[in-house]
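Input set for joint prediction.
Command: fold jointly, output tokens.
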Amino acid sequence: MPPLPQSVPIAWYLTLSAILFVLGVAGFLYRRNVITVFMSIELMLNAVNLSFVTFSYKLKEVDGHIFSFFVMVVAAAEAAVGLAIILTVFKNRQTLEIDEVSSLRN
Amino acid sequence: MQLWLIPILPLAGFALNGLLGRRLPKSAINAIAAGSVLLSFLWVLKTLGGLGVFGGGNPLESAYVEHYFTWIQSGPLNIGIDFAVDRLTSVMLLIVTGVGFLIHVYAIGYMAHEGGYYRFFAYLNLFMFFMLVLVLGANFLLLFVGWEGVGLCSYLLIGFYFLEKFATDAGNKAFIVNRIGDFGFSLAVFLIAKTFGTLDFAKVFGKVKDMPVESAAGVLTAISLLLLLGATGKSAQIPLFVWLPDAMAGPTPVSALIHAATMVTAGVYMVARSSQIFLHAAGALDIVAIVGIATAFFAATIGLVQNDIKKVYAYSTVSQLGYMFVGLGTGAFSAGIYHVMTHAFFKALLFLGAGSVIHALSGEQDLRKMGGLRKYTPITFWTLLAASLAIAGFPFLSGYYSKDAILAAAYSHAPWMYWVGVFTAGMTAFYVFRAFFLTFFGEYRGELAGNGAHGGDAHGHSGHDDAHGHDDHGHGALHESPAVMWIPLAILAVLSLVGGYLFNIPKWLDPMFPLVEESPGTEWTTYVSVGFGLAGIALAYLFYVASPGLADSLASTFRSPYRWLYNKYFVDEFYDAAVVNPTVDGSRILLWRVMDAGVIDGAVNGVGKEARNLGSLLRLAQSGYVRNYAAWVVAGAILVIAVMGLAGGAR
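tokens >
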């Protein structure tokens, strides 16, 4: 693996990862469209992936890489299932407003 | 010698009749039931012959043991399926299979009209199996197996007419009362296993002999008293005798076989078998003797006034068993076993004769509705006369020998026991002959069964017994029993007359139970007891034949004692009040209402209710909005990170 340029410190990667994660959380909490919420989840996953890879590089161990691959696999599976659910919800309710899908209330 | 064949044959009969009996014809059931017991009897004879019992010499000095296989191996405790024959067992084997066979034959005639024919004989054969295991078993556990098995069969046969409430109640009573005794017996077995590390008779008794007197007394007394508790249950002694009179709810052959001749003597057999333990236990034998004499006396007084012929004989059985315990308790074990044998002859005969009378009267058991049966049932009359004389201790009949042996032992042990015993012998003669005279003398006092429609023919003299013909057998007028019933009666009558003379049990058992030296100058004890017996017979004759009104006037004069006797000293009522009702009420109120309904149901329902309450609170958190849940997740994550941070990081 070629060394990263010395000029980019580890902290920057971690800061970027944190910013991306907070963006994901905020999107998850504030957006109402299901698709957007879904994308926010993917954003959070990738933010975490980024920090995994960063730490893996810093500590010179491959565990972080392996973990990020796992996360990708799970994310792919989750995307498939999640999109299927979204499609079914839309078919049944003709809406993608997340607050209108609340029949599990109480 | 193949001892195992002896019990296995009746077991095979049980299996055949029990599994296939519904489809078999009656003749096949008869052949299997009586035949298996007959084969068993013959095998006993062959075995004993092979052991030299019928030859001269001195056979069976020590027990002949057959080991089949190990049953239980647990640490040092090793219990095998072992059968043994010694002199005591040989006597019991002959009684059980011999008398048992006669009663089986009798039952063929007696039960001919009853439903559940194959079931009856299957149970009877099963009983024979367990009884033979009981007497053959060479360790306490096998004895216990037989003991429990005969109890089970007793329960099944008492409740044979299970559509009648009183029969099932009587079965339950017998079973439950016996449980109390069996509890004592099982504790005794545990204690023996713990103390001696073995249950084999030979080893246990060998170790008892070697035990130092001072250290042994306590545990041996405990074992003896627990064994005695078991014996009082099975052999119907005070305080557990109450089940036996009720057990008469079963068919009469059952009363004869189980509740007179064999099973109820199991307690006597067990105490005699454990004689080494009792002899080395301080005070235990005295308690045996006192229990016996008290039972003999009180049961005899109750027997004086009962009106049901089977009840009279039932209390007589209790009383005679009391005599056997007196024999055991005074150290005359062989006299006790002697009385077991003669009692098996004459009491089985009394019951079978009573059954024959009941059969003749189509089910009537009340003495007040009998009378004058001598001309209708002559064979029953003569055989019952033989049995009644034998039990009354008439000179040179079987009961005379055995009762005399017991009373002589009682006299040398404690004279007051002898006097109570002699007085009881007088009462025995009285109540047996009271039943006898009421049955066979005077005028017929009942109404002819199956004849009620005619009316007016209250007396049995009008000669319908011919008019009905013989195919109406068992439902029509007075009639003598068929040959299949009276032949066993006749054989038992001969045994009752000469059995005591022919079979000198005390001499035969001498190596096991050394005879007590009879103190000189006590021949008069025999004359006194015979005198009391004859006086009892004469009194009964006076009361019930010569001047029949006397008994009633006496009863009304002594109303209060009569009432006590008639109601059996209110023992049943006392037990009801002291034990049964508190148990039932305690179960209903404390166990059912408080424990079951209150505590257990309350706890279960309470857990459910609290879960609901908690759930209804948690329900408020379920908004149904995904974003809301996500906010909780974020808040939780922040909380975890904060806590970890405050605690100093992940390390």
